[in-house]
């Protein structure tokens, strides 16, 4: 996608907005890549709201990394990591949210920097980071507990709601290039995939898949190893799940994949959806 100049927002985000989600793989690294980094992307993005994952930085460090865009009028809501160098989620927006909530009422997870939501007019936007997991380990058990508690929170929503983020789950065979080789690996386990089925059955819409039916990808994450990026051997693990009227307003969804490997500023690419 060619980034478009920002054209201004609607008075009501539920009627018209562009939302992007990106795992930055370290906010200081992403903004520190001069000439081809996150700050250059922010200068031209058409997004009104940007969900960030894996900032891997404190509030102070995150604000310092984004100081130039914050001085230009962007607002930042941020949940810093509970463990140094891990997780951290945020929401950048061109308009100040009416309310911000960190976590979803979980005694176990609210302090880990994995979930934040911001309320705008008649829509709530959330940014989530679901950790990778590893099959048949305590780490995977923790992932399932997180998804279980998050799922209960999502089902309780009654207003227009969009949750974006890095789920570290590929839903179907269309969402991962090498699905046969990953049937027993975290990220493509039956229980993880069934959780997404459950959210869709509860009324959420995978808007990127709805706008790109029946095709491989579009992938949003590629390993730095080998030639995964050049061969587009990726995973679609960065989602917009939407409920309410706004889900039906999703009109265009694109993965802002860099033209070449050297121009990447994260191992993920922004996933941007226009809601009109």
UniProtKB/TrEMBL annotation:
<keyword id="KW-0464">Manganese</keyword>
<comment type="similarity">
    <text>Belongs to the DNA repair enzymes AP/ExoA family.</text>
</comment>
<dbReference type="InterPro" id="IPR005135">
    <property type="entry name" value="Endo/exonuclease/phosphatase"/>
</dbReference>
<feature type="binding site">
    <location>
        <position position="268"/>
    </location>
    <ligand>
        <name>Mg(2+)</name>
    </ligand>
</feature>
<feature type="binding site">
    <location>
        <position position="168"/>
    </location>
    <ligand>
        <name>Mg(2+)</name>
    </ligand>
</feature>
<feature type="domain" description="Endonuclease/exonuclease/phosphatase">
    <location>
        <begin position="21"/>
        <end position="268"/>
    </location>
</feature>
<dbReference type="InterPro" id="IPR036691">
    <property type="entry name" value="Endo/exonu/phosph_ase_sf"/>
</dbReference>
<dbReference type="InterPro" id="IPR004808">
    <property type="entry name" value="AP_endonuc_1"/>
</dbReference>
<feature type="site" description="Transition state stabilizer">
    <location>
        <position position="168"/>
    </location>
</feature>
<keyword id="KW-0378">Hydrolase</keyword>
<feature type="site" description="Important for catalytic activity">
    <location>
        <position position="238"/>
    </location>
</feature>
<keyword id="KW-0460">Magnesium</keyword>
<feature type="active site" description="Proton donor/acceptor">
    <location>
        <position position="166"/>
    </location>
</feature>
<dbReference type="GO" id="GO:0006281">
    <property type="term" value="P:DNA repair"/>
</dbReference>
<dbReference type="InterPro" id="IPR037493">
    <property type="entry name" value="ExoIII-like"/>
</dbReference>
<dbReference type="Pfam" id="PF03372">
    <property type="entry name" value="Exo_endo_phos"/>
</dbReference>
<protein>
    <submittedName>
        <fullName>Exodeoxyribonuclease III</fullName>
    </submittedName>
</protein>
<dbReference type="GO" id="GO:0008311">
    <property type="term" value="F:double-stranded DNA 3'-5' DNA exonuclease activity"/>
</dbReference>
<feature type="active site">
    <location>
        <position position="129"/>
    </location>
</feature>
<feature type="binding site">
    <location>
        <position position="166"/>
    </location>
    <ligand>
        <name>Mg(2+)</name>
    </ligand>
</feature>
<dbReference type="GO" id="GO:0046872">
    <property type="term" value="F:metal ion binding"/>
</dbReference>
<feature type="binding site">
    <location>
        <position position="54"/>
    </location>
    <ligand>
        <name>Mg(2+)</name>
    </ligand>
</feature>
<feature type="binding site">
    <location>
        <position position="267"/>
    </location>
    <ligand>
        <name>Mg(2+)</name>
    </ligand>
</feature>
<keyword id="KW-0479">Metal-binding</keyword>
<feature type="active site" description="Proton acceptor">
    <location>
        <position position="268"/>
    </location>
</feature>
<feature type="binding site">
    <location>
        <position position="23"/>
    </location>
    <ligand>
        <name>Mg(2+)</name>
    </ligand>
</feature>
<feature type="site" description="Interaction with DNA substrate">
    <location>
        <position position="268"/>
    </location>
</feature>
